[in-house]
Protein 1
Amino acid sequence: MRIGIVDADLIDKGTRHPNLALMKLSGWNKEVGNEVSLLERYEDIPAYDKVYIGKVFSFTRVPENLHIYHNIQCGGTGFYEDGGDNLPDDIEHHMPDYNLYNDYINKQIGKGIKREHYSDYLDYSIGFMTRGCFRRCSFCVNKKYDHAFRHAHVKEFLDETRPKIYLWDDNVLAYSKWKEVFEELIATGRPFQFRQGMDIRLMTEEKAEFISRVKYHGDFIFAFDHIEDKKQIEKNLRIWKKYCKKTTKLYVLVAYDSQDIRDIVNMMERIKILMKCGCIPYVMRYEAYKSSEFKGLYIQIARWCNQPRFYKKMSFRQFCEANQKYHKNPETICSTLQTLRAFEHDYPDIAAKYFDLRFEDLRML
């Protein structure tokens, strides 16, 4: 059979992450003798016996007329909130086809795009060691399971030619035998990273001491989604920072519960707490921010926080004023500074409380 693979996210706006499910489908089909191709156009679908279309993001655009094709099968969280049906076990636990994207990548590099842009495709073994999470947060797509459990061993997806590993585990620290997972990864001799972040609310002295010593790739990443968790998160970050000297980032979800002034205060208070703990926030804007009267402020706060070289050296006010210095027309006010001034005019007390905070002044740990 001729099998076509469509990565809808890649075709629409491009993505720096390969689609793991599609790579497993490709690997299994090649093993049973089918011919597999990555399609770059939907117009090529009729030429194939079977076409798998996957997308991760709900906002990824796909043709409205997909229903006219009778040889397609769609899957992923972009099509189904819970991801749709699971892959059959023999496919789910098949070695991913790490060569699926090679022709596409080689063409892009030939056009002048740097190889580093495709590092996730070329340098990493990718998989899940555990699946599931007991929290089942309303904003999370991974709500199929109510607990964390062992899903696979690293040998299932380890490519010996690739120098690094990254994992998509939902909540590895919720798994009772978390240490076995880390020990298995350590035994590969490769640096690894949990891309979904880890749950700082589950941090303990034992976990902090052990995990801080592993050969971890990049920054350690956790999450601070709810201001209601601030006491627990501050307490556990103190435990964590006692052992770990590497950069620690926390995802800060904003504009989800609301998009009003309460959410702005909520966001700024979490940023202040992370400053005190010597951590870096990464502001993640829920899609609804676009309809908020504070859309501009959400954008500028994210620009400031999500670039550590600015966040570590400047208050938000200093960041906005620095943008004005580089404004092309010195006789007008840049949008960044305009946003600060407009908010400060309407909410002077909030601006006074948060806009002059500096990471270097606040960090206590």
Note: The mean pLDDT is 95.
Protein 2
Amino acid sequence: MIGLTATILVLSGIKKKASLGIMVAVVLIIVAARLKQTSFAQMGLFPPENWLTTVLLGLAVGSGLSLLSIVVIQPLAERITKQPHDVQMVEGVRGNWRALLSWLVLVWTIVAFGEELLFHGFLLSQVIKLLGTTILALVVNVLFNSIVFGLAHAYQGRSGAWSTGIVGACLCALFMVSGNNLWLPIVAHGAIDTFELVLMSLGADKRLRELVWKQVPQPAG
């Protein structure tokens, strides 16, 4: 089930059919739960010790990761791949508050919850069951999960796959340090997307990059 789910998510990202891949993967999770191979509790969907702390920490960590991604991770990925991020899917939010609100509703109702449930609640926890929790096993698990997460976002181009893979690794770590509770990475994931979308709508993402990277030579080619 691990290999099949990962393959579906990766192929759907490469073929730019990410939504379809997520829907099929969700069906697989339901099947796995019915076969008692997993449960929502095992995937981290149990109440945290303190909801307020979880929400505030998730918002803070997510906003910080989003800012780090915009001004450091994404520009570095573009310099490595020599390709810009493909943000065509969300480009319509620039200067359009209606489009922004529509995307924010989608982020907080489907994207953050659904992706965290699939990648970290299911895949990460299933590999933990398979490999255990030794340092080496956790490193292999995070590396595997990050590659799948990045390739599942390949519709953003090579740079997008690299940068989302790195952010995915951070979300893996967040899931683990929270005692395998999924709610902290869900909130953080929502905050990451919200922060980026708001900055895009204001045109502030480009200004932030220019402010940080203006003295750095652009790559040739």
Note: The chain is about 75% helix and 0% strand.
Protein 3
Amino acid sequence: MSDRDLKLNGLSRYAKQSPRLVLEEYGHCEVPAGCGGVVLRWRNPDQPIPMVERFFSGNGKLDYQGLDGDNTLFRSKQLVSYGAHALTLILHDVDPKFAMVLLAAKLDEQYTRILRPQGDTTILSLPDGTWKHTLVAPEGDAWQLPGFDDRDWLPMVEKPINSHSKQYGRDIGYWTQDILDQGAKPLGIDTRHSLVRQMRALFGKQATVPAIYIRKMFSLEKNNQLG
């Protein structure tokens, strides 16, 4: 007889399990006495997987943050389906001397533990050639989609974090350190870029870049071994 069958008076007798469904926290409630509850729901594993994202831009104004053309600027959690994806950013008034991207995103562990998807379950800003940028405004919105040809875009490079970010207070510092602790690196643009040199020649070394367009490709695939 199994241990589960022996627990005749335990609540665990009524616990439900499934190798192909994911039980996630859907909501919760709290009352002043300290008691409360949690609402759980089953999710189909073929549905998009939640991804928690932390992003810090210590340089420039972030005007757009998207996933496959969908504006996610004010969302800390994204839904990622299986397949190829494009994470895109637009920043204005960027100082070429400093980093402007520091990002760490991770798929919900409730899903990855059960479904064990293949591909990029964790996304970090790294100087590995997969983070690309251009200083020339792209035509249309195709650059925000996975199938866009970005071979002519330049790779981002590791840069120091702008020291002026400290003026925003302790919360920003803690947020930034948490992203760094996950292994992300602050990224920026190479000051040897021809357009950067032209702007510095015209406006001096303190000149900022009017806009920078950033792409990061990643993919997620099913684990076929699970059947």
Note: Residues 170-181 form the longest helix (12 residues).
Protein 4
Amino acid sequence: MTGRSRLLIPAVLLVPLPSCSGWQSALNAQGAPGQRLEELIFWIVAICAAVWLTVMAVLARALWRQHETREREVSLDARRERRMMVAVVAGIGATVVIITGFTAASFLTTRSLAVASPADLAIKVRGKMWWWDVEYVASASQPFLKTANELHIPVGKNVRVELQGDDVIHSFWVPSLAGKVDLIPGRTNVLTLRAERSGLYRGQCAEFCGMQHAHMAFLVVADEDGDFQHWSRSQADDASATSADHLIERGREVFLSKQCAACHAVRGTSAKGTTGPDLTHVGSRRYIAAGLLPTTLGSLAAWIADPQTLKPGNNMPMVPLAPDELRAVAAYMSNLK
């Protein structure tokens, strides 16, 4: 083997490793629920690897013995038969024990994903086609908030997420923080999120739910407590009533006079729609259209102009707008922070 070949083999083996980290990886857990799942994955893989190596070793020994010459006729060996019977029974017993252990460990780990107490921060998430409606339940320390496709949570605290499906079955999954939990129409399921360090964690619908299932992502932003409180207070405010910028004010007028206001809500205005996402602070979100596009002026304009080309089959119709109206509405949306 040449020196180049010796270097090539480790390089090929390392190719899959980048997928084991990042902002959407179950093997890069950053919270207690995710860490429990990561440990479960590790032990299952380790035990299965040990079983596979044992089976391969026994198979190799059996194949090797086939090459041995036999100088006498095969005869029944009672002691050998007993050893084989013991080996078979031991194998069956080990299989039962391992599968039972996997089942119990999986049950206990899954059960631990809903350990948040009623005193923790509570968030209601509804899966829609194809976006996420998010409500922060009001409490003594938390104002009522309504947003979409982006959750902010405080670092080091359990967050109770109540999951509901409005149309079809979806599945809420933030690989770095917790496991998958389905959103089933007519039923509320509960999941605990906990981040041990600040950062961005990408989530995804993990249950095929229709044409745009692949474009139904969301973002979990883990903030230090002070940053979370600041974000929470700003999100509780209504949208600013007026703007000194003529283009933004024109966009506000166009938005309220068109069909937009019938489907979307902007607190502090006459727009009270509930069909689409709440847009009160849409300009402060990192992405629009459930993770499809970054929130920039150009992306907002492109989405408003023709949402069906960017995300075919979604429930937002194309609203005819003149070029100057489109620029104004996009500027208004971008200003809602």
Note: The chain has two domains: 20-61+80-233, 246-335.
